[in-house]
Specification:
The complex is a heterodimer of chains A (about 325) and B (about 475).
Chain A lengths: L1 E6 L5 H6 L7 H7 L3 E4 L9 H11 L5 E7 L2 E2 L10 E2 L4 E2 H8 L3 E7 L1 H5 L12 E2 L3 E2 L2 E2 L16 E3 L6 H12 L15 H4 L10 H5 L28 H4 L34 E2 L2 E2 L8 H13 L3 H7 L16
Chain B lengths: L2 E6 L10 E7 L2 E8 L6 H4 L8 H4 L8 H16 L5 H27 L14 H8 L5 H21 L8 E2 L2 E2 L5 H22 L4 H5 L4 H5 L4 H13 L10 E4 L2 E3 L4 E3 L2 E4 L2 E3 L6 E4 L5 E2 L11 E2 L13 E4 L5 E2 L1 H7 L3 H7 L5 H24 L17 E9 L2 E10 L2 E8 L1 H5 L11 H6 L12 H9 L4 H5 L1
Helix pairs in contact in B: 3-4, 4-6, 4-13, 6-7, 7-10, 7-13, 11-12, 11-13, 13-16
Classes of the chains: A alpha/beta (about 325), B alpha+beta (about 475).
Chain lengths: ~325, ~475
């Protein structure tokens, strides 16, 4: 299957992350699945006039398009013209190109939270009028209407993440190539369930601290970051801590908060990213699927039962107290 | 005289969106106009936010210079607070930043730049079959080896920073994760593997042997590894005579460590080094689709002209230092730092070959620095302290991204961001004309480039533009 990859208004970081795929690397993964780039803006040889001819062949249907990947949000400004991003050399906005090419594609994949929902490009009053390919924030309908279906009958596949994990992209593409990407493989926000059925909380190394509400108070401390430091890993979808990034790490493994980057509107949490908003001293925002009364009751109970090892380590920058060993005293 | 205009785009294997308009007469470019055709408005987004949010948002300006943006934002906040990172935190930051810059140089050489030498247009050249085998886009053996080596060395950023791009580990007081002895041993091993990769593919001999070349002749005459293949191609295609820069080099100095910056800060011009007077920076808006007046970045504002009126032709502002355009990047950095081979090359001006050579030198030198820095990590030390920010004030953060000088200027009132301006490396290199009509460095470098009668996307123009390794997403931000 062929892939046309367009970079609309984003940072290019999802492509840079894609290159981090390992075992095997990205080019092998794609080759092995019979996938090839018809054109990719960072990787292909073709430039300028050669690209315009490829785009023309796709638009006129001379070359069928199997997969259209869009990385970056779609700019609608200024004044609805889309001219905040012109596809260079073509005299046309990226908005226009995406709307023209998407109906010709068998599959449309939005890569990254900019492309899926608008993402960081739509932060701070959204100066450029950024929207996603099929969503505007959490509202269905973006550059393409809610009713849009690609040639395969699927809506836009939303591989959200800021950036996307390389495997989320390659596995989505491999599932498409294998004919296994179906509507029931996506969640309610059209994200592939293979990574969106997990929470970032799952396999977080701070889980024992979480269990006892042994919290970090300042950046760099080892405790759970939910109570004070803005972490929303208990609500954010993603298998970040199961799968691991760049050799097995993750945001929470590196000691900073999960900011829910796989979700629409994560870019405007309505509080500073690294601070937990509180009401009467209690964090606002409960772990997913947790009844509030139970959470409160369990939290106060577990906090009362916190072992000293955890309360000491929670506010340390490295393990100070090791687990007690049950060994016979000599 | 035959004249024509060319619009070159989509311009790929550069980061982000770029359109170049060319005036051509008798087979040569007579004028060039660099258009950065995308505006997102990060400087506008930042207004009214908590200052610490800059650490989350500004790295997302760019997925290839993410740590550079992060380091600049963190430095600006630290300057606002009048504090520096703890020494070990600064060291961990330098390691992450050095790896990003190293990876960017490798990506540029193997994926962005050299892929053009595999083009059929060069069939028949003595080196073409080797270039096809090594550099063909996505298939060449060097392209594939680079991607594998890059993914592996980024494990170090994983260990220290959680992920790449877009880490939040770099903070005004240090870094959020204190590495352990195990981490240090592991990072040392990853670096040793990376050294083996560099020595067997890129340099064909020890990293030190390349880093220590001391003359232009030795550098451009290098005949081992892919660096040697490039020098052979560069000599054959005359890349040393193409794409001349302004001869004014700017570096903010790379890797601020407690003792000093690892690569020096300065301006090099007419054979002399002088300090950087950031007070003399102005952003000219005469040919940018922006309302407002020329201003220093601490006073600058960003008001896009939604009608995109002429004579403006780009979203990029035009930064000038003392009224002059400046070239920035790895070659400029090595010249300012006084590397003897870079200085020797600079005597004949910056050009396509010199810019690539500057990156190759820096790859070798950065590998050596990284090894030194990792072995200097002290796992028992503190890596971060809390840095409270004042409710009012201003700060600037000056770093070196792979592509050159990057500055963030922040103002804070009542605990909220009241001003945020960014000048990225490619803002300097790819700036449009200013009020005096002075073109930006790449615009000037393109004048004189050869254009074949049948070419709509001239190869010479591609080599010149890519030699700057433009990052267009950073440029306008």
């Amino acid at each position: 299957m062929n892939i046309l990859w367009l970079q609309s208004a984003g940072c290019g970081g999802c492509t840079m992350s894609l290159l981090n795929a390992e075992s095997p690397g990205v080019f092998d993964l794609l080759d092995n699945a019979g996938l090839r780039f018809l054109w990719h803006p960072a990787l292909s040889q073709e430039t300028g006039g050669e690209v315009r001819r490829i785009l023309n062949d796709l638009e006129t249907g001379r070359v069928p398009l199997d997969i259209l990947c869009v990385e970056g949000s779609i700019l609608t400004g200024p004044k609805g013209t889309g001219r905040f991003q012109m596809l260079s050399g073509t005299g046309r906005s990226m908005l226009d190109w995406v709307q023209s090419l998407a109906p010709r594609a068998a599959h449309v994949v939005a890569v990254g939270t900019c492309a899926t929902y608008g993402g960081v490009t739509s932060a701070g009053g959204n100066p450029a009028g950024a929207i996603g390919v099929q969503y505007d924030g959490r509202n269905p309908g973006g550059a393409l209407p809610e009713s849009f279906r690609s040639g395969s009958g699927l809506p836009v596949i939303n591989v959200a993440g800021c950036p996307t994990h390389p495997d989320w992209v390659t596995e989505t593409l491999m599932l498409i190539a294998a004919g296994e990407m179906r509507a029931d493989a996506l969640d309610a926000l059209q994200r592939p369930l293979f990574y969106a059925e997990n929470l970032v909380h799952h396999a977080c190394p701070k889980n024992e601290f979480y269990e006892y509400k042994a919290s970090a108070e300042k950046p760099g401390q080892m405790g759970c970051m939910m109570e004070h430091l803005g972490c929303v890993g208990t609500q954010a979808v993603g298998d970040c801590n199961i799968r691991g990034w760049n050799g097995g790490s993750s945001c929470t493994r590196a000691g900073y908060a999960c900011i829910n980057c796989t979700a629409p509107e994560f870019e405007e949490p309505s509080h500073p990213f690294s601070e937990t908003p509180k009401f009467a001293g209690i964090p606002v925002g409960l772990p997913s699927d947790m009844p509030k009364a139970w959470f409160m009751a369990l939290a106060s109970l577990s906090k009362a039962a916190t072992p000293k090892r955890l309360s000491d380590n929670a506010v340390a920058d490295r393990i100070k107290v090791t687990p007690t060993l049950r060994v016979k005293q000599k | 005289m035959t004249t024509r205009s060319l619009l070159v785009g989509p311009f790929n294997r550069v980061e982000g969106d770029l359109e170049i308009r060319l005036e051509v007469a008798d087979g040569h470019v007579t004028a060039a106009y660099a258009n950065s055709p995308m505006f997102r408005g990060f400087e506008v987004m930042m207004l009214g936010k908590d200052p610490m949010d800059a650490l989350t948002i500004t790295p997302r300006i760019c997925g290839i210079c993410s740590i550079s943006q992060s380091a600049a934002a963190s430095a600006a906040l630290g300057d606002l607070a009048g504090r520096a990172q703890l020494p070990q935190g600064a060291l961990a930051t330098a390691i992450m930043h050095g790896i990003e810059n190293l990876c960017d140089h490798l990506t540029h050489f193997n994926l962005f730049f050299c892929a053009d030498f595999a083009r059929p247009a060069y069939a028949g050249r003595s080196w073409h079959e080797r270039a096809v085998a090594r550099f063909t886009a996505m298939e060449g053996s060097a392209a594939r080896a680079c991607v594998a080596a890059r993914a592996e060395i980024l494990h170090i950023v994983g260990l220290l920073g959680g992920k790449w791009p877009h880490t939040l580990a770099i903070q005004p007081g240090g870094v959020t994760r204190a590495p352990t002895l195990r981490d240090r041993i592991r990072m040392g091993s990853t670096l040793a593997s990376f050294r083996r990769y560099l020595e067997t593919t890129l340099f064909g001999t020890s990293v030190e042997a390349f880093a220590e070349v001391s003359t232009a002749e030795a550098l451009i005459g290098w005949d081992k590894g892919d660096a040697g293949l490039f020098m052979e191609i560069a000599a054959d295609l005359g890349l040393g005579g193409m794409g001349f820069g302004p001869g004014r080099y700017l570096s903010f100095g790379a890797y601020p460590l407690p003792e000093d910056r690892a690569f020096a800060q300065g301006v090099w011009q007419d054979g002399a080094l002088s300090p950087v007077d950031t007070g003399a920076i102005r952003e000219d808006l005469s040919h940018a689709w922006m309302h407002g007046d020329t201003a220093h970045p601490s006073k600058g504002e960003t008001h896009p002209d939604e009608d995109m009126q002429a004579p403006a032709y780009s979203w990029c502002k035009a930064p000038r230092l003392g009224g002059q355009s400046m070239e920035t990047g790895a070659f400029a950095r090595q010249v300012v730092d006084g590397h003897p081979a870079a200085l020797d090359l600079a005597a004949h001006g910056s050009n396509v070959r010199a810019r690539v050579a500057g990156r190759l030198l820096e790859i070798a030198r950065t590998q050596i620095l990284l090894e030194r820095w990792v072995s200097a990590l002290t796992p028992e030390a503190r890596f971060i302290e809390d840095v409270p920010l004042p409710a009012h004030g201003s700060g600037k953060g000056l770093v070196e991204a792979a592509r050159g000088a990057l500055g963030h200027w922040i103002s804070v009132e009542n605990g909220r961001i009241s001003g945020y301006q960014i000048i990225a490396p490619t803002t300097w290199n790819f700036s449009p004309r200013d009020a005096a009509g002075l073109p930006g460095p790449v615009e000037a470098a393109l004048v004189g480039a050869e254009v074949g009668d049948a070419e709509d996307t001239p190869l010479s123009v591609q080599h010149i533009v890519r030699s700057f390794d433009p990052c267009m997403v950073c440029t306008v931000h």
